[in-house]
Amino acid sequence: MKRDQEKKISLQKKIRKQFVQNGQIPWSEGYNAFKEESIIKSISNESLLSELSLNRVPTNFGYRLDERIIEYPWIFSNLKKEPTLFLDAGSTFNFKYILDHNYISIKKKYIYTYYPERKSYNDKKISYIYGDLRELPFKNEFFEEIVCQSTIEHIDMDNSIYGYDLESSIAKTANKSYEYLKVINELIRVLKPNGQLLLTFPYGKFENHGFFQQLDSEMVEKITDIMTGSGIYDIIFYKYLPNGWTIASKEDCNESESFNPHTQIGKRNDYAAHSRAICCLKFIKK
To answer: How confident is the model at residue 6 (pLDDT cuts 50, 70, 90)?
Structure first.
């Protein structure tokens, strides 16, 4: 068993090295392994997390990697460093290297998603619950901390790419769906007073890519209108540039376009792997 594990680690290292030597082309062989290693390093780097908490990003950070490389450390830089009743709304934390992190391992964790995934970590005493985020089966003011990472953009979209049979209410055209606002209301409903919600999603020009929609300024304002009536929030935008991710103003991100790796729509010569801008919201309930 130990020898098999050593072989696997050696192979992963070789794949990552090959990815770098081949120019770090997004989605080429080794991309996912390199991205995972980069995420692990970033969320384990206390100095980096401190910098992010001060709204600073190192030069060339996340070079040719998709938005997960900035979303995870931003979230970790804002997590409460104490045991909390914690909800992962969308199951983006269902990875061993995330669940084993000392910020997460101390929390009482619920993972809520539409359908069971290939891996579950019942040995870590996680409560897996399945259903639609628009109708959460939790009582009011239940959770102390909620993370919803790059999930609301998939609400009411064609999720067959993930094996789900949820039907969208909108055509695969330029139409917008506002069903994501039901999720925002539900997440706020189940959040305790003084509890926090950490929310991220792709931002820029409105785009309907079938399986996700990119939110624009008008759609974000509908979120902040809800939050203003329920608590206080901080908002920050990150933008992808050819040399990596950086903090940017909302105005600088308004015209950003995503690259859809499944259809190749939005491909440019900047080697963006997916979103070119994201919005990160930290909400504290009154």
So the answer is: low
- With contact defined as beta carbons under 8 Å apart, do 185 and 225 qualify? no
For 236, phi and psi rounded to 5 degrees? -140, 145
CATH class of 52-285: alpha beta
pLDDT at position 9 is 66
What is the distance, to the nearest Å, from the Cα of residue 103 to the centroid of all Cα atoms in its chain? 17
Q: What percent of the chain has pLDDT over 70?
A: 92
CA distances from 148 to 33, 34, 111, 118, 280 (A): 23, 24, 10, 20, 10
Pull the structure tokens for residue 219: 């759609």
Whether 134 and 184 have beta carbons less than 8 Å apart is answered as no
- Tokens matching residue 215: 């939110």
For the whole prediction, is pTM greater than 0.90?
A: yes
Closest Cα partner for 27 from 246, 283, 263? 263
Alpha helices per DSSP H over 85-241:
96-99, 102-105, 180-189, 217-228
